[in-house]
Amino acid sequence: MLAIAIREQDRSYRTAKPYSPNKITMNAPLPTPLFPPSWHAELELGYGLDGGTTRPTLRRHKGPLRVQKHLYAEGPEVCQHIIVHPPGGIAGGDRLDITATVGRNAWAQLTSPGAAKWYRAKGPAYQHIRLRVETGATLEWLPQETIVYAEAQAELSTEIDLEGDAKLLYWDVVALGRPASGERFDAGQFHAQLNIRRDGQLLWHERQRVVGDDGLLDSPIGLDGQPVFATLLITGEIDSELLDQCRTLSTPVRGDLSQLPGLLVARCLASEALHARAWLIELWRLLRPALLGRSAVPPPQNLEHLNNGFNPTRKRQTADLHCRFSGRTPFSPRPQTQLPGSHGLHLRRLARRRA
């Protein structure tokens, strides 16, 4: 009897189903997905003046948010940094947090290599920017446009703190929908908030709320049927002659400027982001020497990405923007020594193609 019992136990052991680690049983923890459903990225930057040169003093990141190598296209006093978001777009659940501090008497210029795309999603995505500029320092925030797809849910907030006589030049371009693809911003929402303070006192407060297919998109008191709107803010005050010169710029946008105590505000409506950015560049060329004390030198990445397409008209417009940056007559050759490194090489290639 004992032998029979042993044989039965042995048979049941050999015929039992093997344990599968992939099989989820009751009360077992769910497996971790291979790819997270959303991106949470953080970037923290700091700049300081060291022996007459503005140097990065802090660069900390978490997730897909980085900066490229810093550049000195204008000399050692101005540090240029390009903020890169490798996924290339922002979808529901994503969260981007960017913090930058410009130390005393330093000068930083921050921009991006391409447009920020906010994709359609069932849930909101977030971007929070916190900038601090210490006494005697200057910050230029010059990103590419923000493209908000139909059915996207974008939540943006920006907080800027200025100390003492700190200087700021900030611009922002928002494109709703994709008119070139026949996509109208008929669903979704875009929320943005901007606060600028000097020594704790509120200098500028703005809240934008755009809902898809809202009546204000076509209303004369709203966007008047234009899918692109842009804003430029720069600290300081200008005289009436320069103000009139800015207002009489020949561009295909509908824009104007307002001089407030300690802050100049410029806004425009446009049919496409390229026109709005060209208007901002023209204002930047005029206002930068007067209010920031330096002549306008083009950030190297602001225009080159437009040459990736095969549209000859768009290439021609891009070359015109290069000319507006530098004050040249459109399509005139440029000496090779005026822009260093790859930027001069890029313009020489443009000249050869035009020839």
What report would you give on this structure?
This protein is of the alpha/beta class and 355 residues long. It is 20% helix and 35% strand. It has 5 helices and 17 strands. Strands 3, 4, 6, 7, 9, 10, 12, 15, 16 and 17 form a 10-stranded mixed beta sheet that branches. It has a 7-stranded mixed beta sheet with strand order 2-1-5-8-11-13-14, with no helix packed on it. Helix 3 packs parallel to helix 4. The longest helix is centred in the last third of the chain and has 20 residues, at 273-292. The termini are far apart. The relative contact order is 0.09.
What features would you highlight for this structure?
alpha/beta, 20% helix, disordered C terminus, single chain, 355 residues, 5 helices, 7-stranded mixed sheet
Rg from Cα: 26 Å
What is the first-to-last residue Cα distance? 102 Å
The best one-word shape is globular
What is the averaged pLDDT score? 82
Judged by helices, strands and strand pairing, the structural class is: alpha/beta
Strand content: 35-45%
Find the count of extended strands (DSSP E, 2+ residues).
Answer: 17
The largest sheet, given as strand count, sense and whether it forms a barrel, is: 10 strands, mixed
Which spans have pLDDT < 50 for at least 5 consecutive residues?
Answer: 1-17, 19-26, 303-355
The total count of helices amounts to: 5
Percentage of residues assigned to helices: 10-25%
- Helix and strand run: HEEEEEEEEEEEEEEEHEEHHH
